[in-house]
Amino acid sequence: MSAFLTHALDAALALYALAMAGALLRMLRGPTAQDRVLALDFITVNGMLAMLTLGVRYASTMYFVTALIVALFGFVASAALAKFLLRGEVIE
Amino acid sequence: MNAAPSLVMETIVGLLVIASGILSFVGAIGLLRLPTFFQRMHPPALASTLATWAAALATIAYFSAIGSRLALYPWLIVVLAAITAPITTSLLARAALFRVRAAGGDAPPPIVTES
């Protein structure tokens, strides 16, 4: 692996971490509940992207499965939270 | 497996990954800085579309290069994101509309045109 690719992967991981920190700030500060749900959804998407990047970093296919699972559970969590905000209950 | 990828391929992968990181970071800046919730709904779509596409393309390119065959499975994540992101967004928009109107507010806010 060339030095450029290693540094590019590290830079991308740092950018994902910064994006997650920004979304965490929005989640802690966010004036309404839907802001917090939006920030949590953004954090899970960034975690999925970080898993994809780590898969390239360590040349392992297992990280892809992790990314898939993180994306799926992130969707389920966001949909359930949005449904809760809409109705006051998740399953009716 | 484990063929060393060429320098050109590694550069392409690196550029795609950096593009993905920058796009996601721009989305986070938008999420932090935009004033109202209905405006803040837009920037996270940058992470679940363009950043995901770039990262998946980088993964496809890298694993195709080291595996010496086309590895298209990372595109599954793009398909999954394309299905799930609009569902989450429309559910959240509906919840936000409902909550703002239940609190007595006027939603959606009027369109502001900046000159």
Keywords:
heterodimer, A: 92 residues, Helix Hairpins, 85% helix, 0% strand, elongated, B: 115 residues, mainly alpha
Strand content of chain A: under 5%
Mean pLDDT of chain A: 91
Number of DSSP helical runs of chain A: 3
Oligomer: heterodimer
What is the helical fraction of chain A, as a range of percent?
over 70%
Helix share bin of chain B: over 70%
How many individual helices of chain B? 4
CATH architecture of chain A: Orthogonal Bundle
SSE ordering of chain A: HHH
DSSP strand count of chain B: 0
> Main sheet of chain B?
none
What's the SSE pattern of chain B? HHHH
Report the structural category of chain A.
Answer: mainly alpha
Main β-sheet of chain A, in a few words? none
Overall radius of gyration of chain A: 16 Å
Uncertain segments of chain A of ≥5 residues (pLDDT<50)? none
**Any idea what the shape of chain A is?**
elongated
The N- to C-terminal Cα distance of chain B equals: 56 Å
Structural class of chain B, by secondary structure, is mainly alpha
Could you describe the 3D structure shown?
- The complex is a heterodimer of chains A (92) and B (115).
- In chain A, 85% of the residues lie in helices and 0% in strands.
- With 92 residues, chain A is mostly helical.
- In chain A, α1 runs antiparallel to α2 and α2 (33-57) packs antiparallel against α3 (62-87).
- Chain A is elongated and about 50 Å long.
- The termini of chain A are far apart.
- Chain B is built from 4 helices and no strands.
- Chain B has one domain (7-102).
- Helix content of chain B is 72%, strand content 0%.
- Chain B is an all-alpha fold.
- The mean pLDDT of chain B is 88.
- The longest helix of chain B is centred in the C-terminal third of the chain and has 28 residues, at 75-102.
- At the A-B interface, α1, α2 and α3 of A face α1, α3 and α4 of B.
